[in-house]
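From the pipeline queue, job 12 of 40. The input is one protein chain; the requested action is below.

Action: predict structure.
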Amino acid sequence: MIIPIRCFTCGRLVADKWEEYSRRVRQGEDSTAVLDSMGLKRYCCRRMLLSHVDIIDSVLQFAERT
């Protein structure tokens, strides 16, 4: 999980909201409603969660094993 800690534009904390957001979307809630209920109103902060791709599992395949 390599979610940025803060929004690149405004600097608001967004990483602490990732777990709840991903859990609620997986359960079938609408992502727009989830972001609204979590208090993320700015477009810049919303895009941080909406555009995040969890790539850590793919990257770990290429990690050097010792």
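Job complete. The two ends are 22 Å apart (CA to CA).
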